[in-house]
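Summary of Year 1 activities. Much of the first year was spent building the evaluation harness for sequence design. The harness presents a backbone, in tokenized form, and records the residue chosen at every position. We chose the following record to illustrate the format because it has been used consistently in internal testing since the harness was completed.
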């Protein structure tokens, strides 16, 4: 089993940006089946399968740490050496079965310099990843602190000392530039791994929605449309398919999710076959997603309320091509989720949507409707940001695309 340890001054439920990142890392490693240990000075065991070691003297605001720091500034080395020795012993005991350690800010921040020195010494025997979120040398709020120490004298100089035994990671290119230009770290030795968000947890997504988007490769589409309806003739699904085909002709990588099954009271199965043939004939056979066929089994796949909610959250626009409706609930649902809605200008939909829905005539050619969708969505900046966050800044993608390759290069196994 792969093993990794994480160390920081404090951990959740203590609130902080670094603590937030650590929790995400712990979740990721545990979900991937790693054996994980959290070593901290203040915090709690987050998960039942997480190994946890509390060493109070790691905490930056522990009375002994504060006293040691103040005495060291005045030239008293004894307390520093005692605390450093103590921390080396406790850490080596806690890390006995662990070769790879992520240390958050411990190599760059001055909050517990004995801990920094202890980690530097242990790094001669263990593989440390120094995760640098901050540094006092390029943050003006630490000006007073820097004036109280000699940053060129041991142990304070460790905060700006590059060690080839340590793998350095920082959170942005801007931070990397500071490390290179201010601290003179070798540029090629600094990895950038951005912070992120847990998209599924933040949006409370249904697990099936995530699997659907992965199964159909929807995260890599330019836009994903939602068509929440049964396969009934009056829904005019043919027009929706032709609109997607026109968008594809415009070099747009677009998909349309059709949520409902065929009408059980009519020969809906035949209609589904007709629609699938039309999709194939117009070149969008793989872009029109009939969710009723998502899973094989007895009957058609059913989209639950919670799954539908998640599909609304992940989709980019709502498409309604009906030529007859008694009401039009999807217009209300799309409004709740702030989706751009493109709908046929039939009376019932106009009654609900008014001027807040983008209407088209059923007499309009699909190419004209497609151009209307394209011009509207291109002006929605928040859609571009949403795509970038989902495709680049989800924690699972970040760790899979950035962190795991770094660990593999370190012969992590």
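For this record, the design step produced the sequence shown next.
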């Amino acid at each position: 089993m792969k093993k990794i340890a994480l160390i920081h001054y404090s951990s959740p439920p203590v609130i902080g940006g670094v603590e937030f990142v650590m929790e995400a890392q712990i979740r990721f490693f545990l979900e991937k089946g790693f054996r994980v240990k959290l070593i901290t000075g203040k915090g709690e065991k987050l998960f039942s399968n997480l190994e946890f070691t509390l060493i109070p003297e790691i905490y930056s605001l522990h009375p002994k740490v504060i006293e040691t720091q103040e005495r060291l500034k005045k030239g008293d080395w004894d307390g520093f050496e005692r605390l450093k020795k103590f921390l080396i012993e406790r850490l080596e005991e806690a890390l006995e079965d662990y070769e790879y350690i992520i240390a958050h800010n411990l190599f760059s921040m001055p909050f517990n310099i004995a801990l920094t020195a202890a980690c530097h010494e242990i790094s001669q025997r263990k593989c440390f990843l120094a995760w640098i979120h901050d540094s006092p040398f390029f943050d003006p709020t630490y000006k007073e602190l820097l004036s109280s120490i000699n940053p060129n004298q041991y142990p304070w100089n460790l905060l700006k000392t590059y060690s080839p035994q340590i793998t350095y990671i920082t959170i942005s290119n801007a931070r990397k530039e500071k490390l290179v230009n201010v601290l003179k770290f070798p540029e090629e030795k600094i990895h950038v791994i951005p912070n992120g968000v847990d998209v599924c947890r933040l949006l409370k997504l249904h697990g099936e929605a995530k699997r659907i988007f992965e199964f159909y490769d929807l995260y890599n589409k330019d836009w994903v449309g939602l068509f929440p309806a049964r396969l009934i003739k009056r829904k005019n699904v043919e027009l929706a398919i032709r609109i997607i085909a026109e968008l594809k002709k415009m070099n747009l990588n677009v998909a349309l999710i059709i949520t409902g099954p065929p009408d059980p009271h009519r020969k809906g199965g035949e209609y589904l076959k007709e629609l699938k043939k039309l999709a194939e004939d117009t070149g969008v056979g793989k872009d029109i997603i009939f969710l009723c066929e998502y899973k094989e089994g007895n009957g058609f796949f059913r989209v639950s309320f919670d799954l539908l909610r998640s599909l609304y959250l992940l989709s980019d626009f709502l498409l309604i091509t009906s030529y007859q409706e008694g009401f039009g609930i999807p217009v209300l649902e799309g409004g709740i989720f702030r989706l751009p809605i493109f709908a046929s200008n039939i009376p019932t939909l106009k009654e609900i949507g008014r001027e807040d829905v983008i209407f088209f005539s059923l007499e309009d050619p699909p190419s004209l409707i497609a151009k209307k969708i394209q011009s509207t969505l291109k002006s929605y900046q928040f859609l571009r940001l949403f795509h970038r966050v989902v495709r680049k800044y989800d924690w699972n993608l970040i760790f899979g695309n950035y962190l795991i390759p770094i660990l593999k290069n370190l012969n992590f196994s």
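The chain has a mean pLDDT of 93. Quantitative recovery figures across the full test set are reported in Table 2.
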